[in-house]
Design brief:
This protein is an alpha/beta fold. It contains twelve helices and nine strands. The strands form two sheets. The chain has a seven-stranded mixed sheet with strand order 3-2-1-4-5-8-7, sandwiched between helices. It has a two-stranded antiparallel ribbon with strand order 6-9. Strand 7 and strand 8 form a beta hairpin. The chain starts with a helix and ends with a strand.
Length: 308
């Protein structure tokens, strides 16, 4: 005979296991849906680039830049934007620094590193993510160039020493900043490298009209600050203002409303153009699909926000 009292444990375990399996399936389906959406965008942009760009006299700079977006290893269309930008301004030493890389599989420098022979430094605060990135790049069949990965939590106080620890100082081609927190304060503190191109995540929830950032906290953790995840980083206008102070021009943003791209003032832009934050701004699509910009901001407006 079966003991009904003892059957509850495996039944509960089966339910938990089933829930976890379905959760993983749903996550995989979401990832596949995102991948398919960007494949469609890639194909659309390839078609536009080949057949429409040259014959469309009304094509704006904003839309032309958008047509250069392709996704290989980046989160959105930044892979295509990076290749286009460096096709216009040229490259020097093909060195990069990227920090806030997550698990390393979706980041700005990955395509340049794996497929174009770049070398550089990646920094990630999470030990789990950093170890995954080391394994991913250490065994990748397309791996070229040299890469160092540091597992360090970044602050404005340690950022320059981390670059030195990673063996990079002076001029580099690319700096990518994405730490979902003190991005403004960390970029402001950087002085041991001189990137030709800077790409930095901006917080579209702050809107396009004001130069805003979060209050500096060396132990900043995005979801601990607010469960919405909307309180972090800096507005696009704050990025534009800081860029000017550091000798950079804003040349555009990716159309998903995530990253802003800057080129150093002493570099010939080619067909690129300097634009204002108002001209370059995109709302973040994945958020505005859920709630309006004003609804997003209302959730976090009570938190410490600094106008710079």
């Amino acid at each position: 005979m079966f003991n009904l009292a003892t059957k509850k444990i495996p039944q509960n375990m089966d339910l938990i296991g089933s829930f976890k399996r379905w959760k993983n399936i749903i996550l995989q389906l979401k990832q596949m849906d995102t991948r398919l959406r960007f494949i469609e965008i890639n194909l659309e942009n390839l078609f536009h680039e080949k057949y429409l760009s040259a014959s469309d006299p009304k094509l704006t700079y904003r839309n032309e830049l958008r047509s250069k977006e392709y996704r290989v290893h980046s989160q959105n269309g930044e892979d295509g934007l990076m290749l286009y930008i460096f096709s216009q301004i040229g490259v020097t030493n093909r060195k990069f620094i990227e920090f806030g890389i997550g698990d390393g599989t979706e980041c700005i420098a990955a395509n340049l590193l794996l497929n174009f022979g770049w070398s550089g430094l990646m920094i990630e605060g999470s030990k789990t993510y950093a170890e995954h990135a080391k394994k991913y790049y250490g065994t990748h069949p397309k791996m070229q160039g040299n890469l160092k990965i540091l597992n360090k939590f970044i602050t404005k106080e340690n950022i320059n020493s981390l670059f030195k620890e990673g063996g990079i100082e002076g001029e580099i081609d690319l700096l990518s900043i994405d730490i979902d927190g003190n991005d403004y304060w960390v970029w402001k503190a950087i002085d041991v490298v001189s990137p030709r191109v800077v790409i930095i995540e901006y917080n579209a929830t702050f809107g396009k009209d004001k130069a805003l950032t979060v209050e500096y906290d060396p132990s900043f953790m995005r979801l601990e600050k607010h469960k919405s995840g909307y309180y972090y980083g800096l507005s696009l206008k704050a990025a534009e203002k800081l860029g000017k102070e550091k000798g950079y021009r804003l040349i555009g943003c990716d159309s998903e409303g995530v990253n802003a791209i800057f080129v150093r003032n002493d570099i010939n832009l080619g067909n690129l153009k300097s634009v204002t934050s108002e001209e370059a701004y995109y709302e973040m699509k994945v958020r505005t699909d859920v709630c309006s910009l004003s609804e997003q901001y209302n959730l976090i407006k009570h938190l410490p926000i600094v106008e710079v």
